[in-house]
Amino acid sequence: MLSRALWQLVKRCLIPAAAVVAEAKAHSEPEHPRLCRPSELPIYIPEPICNVKHKVVEAPGILESTIRDTRETLTKYSDEVKAYQRVTQEHISKSKENIQWLVDYLHEEDNTLPRAGAVGIGALAGLIFGLRGGIIKRTLYATAGATGVAAICYPSEASEYSKVGITEAKKYLTVAYNFVYGVKKDDPPLELPSLPKLPSSLTEVWTSVKSTFVSDAPETKAPQEQVPKSK
Known about the structure:
- The protein is mainly alpha-helical.
- It has 6 helices and no strands.
- Helix 3 packs antiparallel against helix 4 (135-153) and helix 4 (135-153) crosses helix 5.
- The longest helix has 46 residues, at 62-107.
- It is rod-shaped, with a radius of gyration of 55 Å.
- The N and C termini lie far apart (120 Å).
- The relative contact order is 0.05.
- Mean pLDDT is 73; it is low at 217-231.
């Protein structure tokens, strides 16, 4: 009975006193600052909002479409023409180099048999070109072919003989010219009218042909050195 009375005393007096002390202690302690979340810190900024503007593409008109198609077509054909021109120039340059090599080979003194073969081929080519004509035409064509190739194989002899032939031909032309104009024997002879300068030999003819091929070839310009500007 005594213990029960003590328990009732503690329950009625001590427990309310402890509650009052705890409440007073809670009021006496300073208040802690309110905690925040990591996302609420100032280093975290909101993500920028991307504003996408949709561009309105207008359909091209009839005039614009026509001009565009014409330009594309012209560009295409221009590129094709340039490609064909480049291939043609390459073939011309290669053919010129091969012909020059063949001529230099025939000019060598030790190549007697190749020279004779070349003269025979020239005569045969002239004969083939004159097959449709009579015996005179065939003979003239074959002689012209053989003479032309022989002039290439023997340039010095061809130059000498051609000069003699040109001199004799000029003399006979002067006689015929004076005869046509009725110049008598005792009168001073008339001079032939001035004519354009013609090659005096087959070598000059070949030189002019080579120069023509060289002039037709495209020229490659060397890059110019850049000079620094003076300050």
